[in-house]
Each structure stands twice: as C-alpha cells, then as structure tokens.
Specification:
This protein is of the alpha+beta class. About 30% of the residues lie in helices and about 20% in strands. It is built from six helices and eight strands.
Length: about 200
C-alpha cells in the first residue's frame, strides 16, 4: 500500500522542461536505481552533497569527516512528474526515512536522509509533506529526514554511476536494491519504466 500523496504540491507544468531535485537516502546506488526508473525522469547522477569540504571523493566521504552525504541528483520533466511525486517515492520506496545516520547495515552520517532543496518551493513542499506523514503516523517512528539548502553537488566517480544496472549480481545490490525496484514496480506501476542505461 503506497503512502499518501502530498497534500501540498505543485500542479504539473503545462510545457515540458527540466528541473532538478537532490536527495540523500543511504547508499546512492539504490537511490539512483529507484529514481532512474520513473516516468518523467530525464537523468540521474550519483554524487556527494551537504558537506563543508570544497570537493568530495568516495575515499574522502567514506571516512565520515567531510560532512557529505551520498546523494542523487534527479533531473525531471515537471510536465510529467511533480516534486511532490518524487518525494513520495523518496519516502516510500527509496529508503527508510526514520533511520538516523544509517540505512540498514550502512552506518554513518554519509548515509543520512536529506532533502536538499534548490528553491523555497521545494523547501515548502518537503517540510509540509514530512509534517503530513508524521501527523498521520504513516511510519512507526518519527521521520528524521533533514531538509537543507542545496549548496553544492559533486558528481561521484564514473564507476558509481548506474552501479546497480551494471552489477546486478553484486550481493549488496541483490539484497538491498533489487527489492526497492520491485517495490516501485508494485506500488507505482503507473510511474514505473524499465531502465537500460544512458542512451
């Protein structure tokens, strides 16, 4: 059963375009694997956001000293998908928003749950949705997702891009990420699209 839609959202745009949303919710392989399978998503990139360091590499971020979180930049067409719909997927399928500084066995602030808003509208919709979900007790625990301004997004190394697609046999992908893709397909069939890589 999917979680409720946001009561506060923007209407679908009347003309096609490109808008960007950035989310962090655990290992970015799985988050990307979910968002790249949504109708209306034009592109996804994994990277690092939310830290104080001027740059970010996987080796630096995994030391948990840079403040960055593993993030996914989602470029979408606002005439096909709303920001609120992206948030609904983020909270229901992409990760567990009640786990603080971890997702499953991945532990540390780099795996924290964050919505990086690019403008006041994204901030308003995100905060309203968290309040709505908490008030309705949709999750057994309080949502710990941070809502913070997007300052910078650093693209991750090439080998992390589309990782789940290129390494389906990786045990981590099978255990952690395949179930997310299946959940997306089952809960949101009208939004699900197969992903075969960048064209």
């Amino acid at each position: 059963m999917p979680i409720p839609s946001p009561q506060t959202d923007v209407p679908l745009a009347t003309a096609p375009g490109r808008q960007t949303a950035v989310f962090a919710g655990g290992c970015f392989w799985g988050t990307q694997a979910v968002f790249q399978r949504l109708k209306g998503v034009l592109d996804t990139t994994v990277g690092y956001s939310g830290g104080t360091a001027e740059t970010a590499t996987y080796a630096q971020v995994t030391t948990e000293t840079t403040g960055h979180a593993e993030s996914v930049e989602v470029v979408y067409d606002p005439s096909k998908l709303t920001y609120g719909q992206l948030l609904r997927i983020f909270f229901s399928v992409a990760h567990d928003p009640t786990q603080l500084n971890r997702q499953g066995n991945d532990i540390g602030p780099s795996y924290r749950s964050v919505i990086f808003y690019a403008n006041p509208e994204q901030e308003r919709i995100a905060k309203a949705y968290i309040a709505q979900l908490d008030a309705a007790h949709v999750f057994p625990k309080k949502i710990v997702t941070q809502v913070t301004p997007l300052k910078a997004f650093y693209r991750a190394e090439d080998y992390h891009q589309d990782y789940a697609l290129h390494h389906p046999e990786n045990p981590y992908i099978e255990v952690c990420d395949r179930p997310k893709i299946e959940a997306l397909k089952k809960q949101f069939p009208e939004l699900f699209v197969d992903y075969t890589g960048k064209h």
